[in-house]
Amino acid sequence: MAYNISIYHETRRVKENGKFSVKIRVYNKHDNKKTVRYFTTGIDLTEKEFETIWLNPENKNLRGTNKEIELKLRAIEKRANDEAQAMSVFDFSKFETKLFRKSTDKNNIKYYFNLAIEKNKNIDKIGTAESYRYTLNSLANFSELINKCNIEKLTFNEITVEWLKAYEKFMINKGKSYTTIGIYTRTLRAVFNNAIEQNDISNDIYPFGKNKYKIPRTKKVKKALNSIQLKALYESKVENNKEEEAKDFWFFSYACNGMNLKDIALLKYSDIDDNKFKYYRAKTFDKSSEKTEITIYLTDFTAKIIEKYGNENKNGFVFNIISKEDDINTQYKKIKNFNRYINDHIKRIAKANNLPLDCSFYWARHSFATNSIRKGVTMEFISEALNHSDLNVTKNYFAGFEDEAKKEFADSLLDF
After folding, report:
1. How confident is the model at residue 294 (pLDDT cuts 50, 70, 90)?
2. Tens-place pLDDT, residues 358-388
3. Which candidate, 26, 192, 273, 374, has a CA 20 to 30 Å from the CA of 78?
């Protein structure tokens, strides 16, 4: 055993109450390194009290408060040993988290969701944290309305295959799509995996997988404008400056290889060098140890957009979507609001020009991909331009295009 746990009386510093802190002393030896850390128990004792209650093992006559303190200390010591033994490899950070949580937390759904939310917030993944929060709210709604179980008390044991099927039916009855159900249940599955990895629950109660609950999978249709629609949007007349701005940023994304709005917002003047700029895609930056830098060559159009909307001082961020004073939460909200702003006005332009009414900013990325392949660009080039991890991700962009291409080919068979 690489660790040793004991009750320790910290007598080097007296507290205002004239007593000394009683702590958990943890000694850990790993990779020829010895580490000692102390964790508070919340109990203060004088030296005489500590000797009477803890250092005299032959004292069997403890009564009242002294007996309560002894039992409490023994319970803390036992729990500390139990938590340490449950870890395959001892880790001080994980040990501290487990030691000071409620005994019921290890089997509590909300507790693990909150851990995931805080973890993602701490590493600036606000969108992912929001996804966990939305899922938790949905599960709480179902659990409280249908199962009459408050989310505070919902445990992993209660989420069975039958529970998940009932949740799926509940969501369908509320008009939710299978795509949404898939997102929420995959998030729940991630929480299960985290709890199993921490040895807090048994793999025996895992409700997902073969012969268990199957998470709905839907083929995500990547919507895009064809070349005729793109020309119509590009040449469309706008009613005001807001529509003009929305159209300009839509085509800036399109002309920059389908650049995401977050990456546009984070673009800095220091990223621009002569006739090009370089950036790392924020969405995939933390998903791989190998960081891929994307290079975008400026055209007359994209250079004009930067000149038109760029900050006058030519310092910091190029566009006035976020500012350097914003914290990560403020940045997330501003980018989300700007995305909503663009979508609102792009839809107005689309309606006025008989284009698809659900056209949005994200269509620019899909439109770049599908129209590039129509021009004969290889899928490998598109995959690199979109910064995809593999070609299978890129192929999803071309389902609609392939169907259209097949129809055109069938119609042309008799054109001798």
Report:
1. confident
2. 999 999 988 988 888 777 777 777 777 776 6
3. 192
Question: Which of 251, 255, 228, 260 has its CA nearest to residue 346?
Answer: 251
Q: Answer yes or no: are the C-beta atoms of 382 and 372 closer than 8 Å.
A: yes
Strand 276-280 relative to strand 293-297, pairing? antiparallel
CB 267 within 8 A of CB 317: yes
**Cβ atoms within 10 Å of 218's Cβ, excluding its own:** 11
Q: Can you spell out the DSSP letters for 233-262?
A: HHTPPPSSHHHHHHHHHHHHHHHTTS--HH
What is the C-alpha to C-alpha distance for residues 400 and 396, in angstroms, rounded to an integer?
Answer: 9
Q: How many CA atoms lie within 13 A of 84 on its CB side?
A: 18
DSSP 3-state of 266: helix
Q: What is the pLDDT of residue 87?
A: 79
Q: How far is CA 20 from CA 39, 86, 284, in A?
A: 14, 30, 50
As a 3-state breakdown, the chain gives helix, strand, coil percent values, each rounded to 5, of 55, 10, 30
CA-based torsion, 117, 118, 119, 122: positive or negative: positive
Reported confidence tier of residue 91, pLDDT bands at 50, 70, 90: confident
Task: Say if residues 252 and 292 touch (Cβ distance below 8 Å).
Answer: no
Q: What are phi and psi of 26, to 5 degrees?
A: -120, 120
CB within 8 Å of 397: residues ≥ 6 apart: 222, 224, 366, 369, 370, 382, 386
Amino acid identity of 344? D
> Which residues contact residue 80 at a Cβ distance below 8 angstroms, ignoring those fewer than 6 apart?
5, 24, 26, 39, 95, 99
pLDDT at 394 over 80: no
How many CB atoms are located within 10 Å of the residue 313 CB?
Answer: 7
What are 235-293's pLDDT values in tens digits?
Answer: 999 999 999 999 999 999 999 989 999 999 999 999 999 899 998 887 765 555 556 78
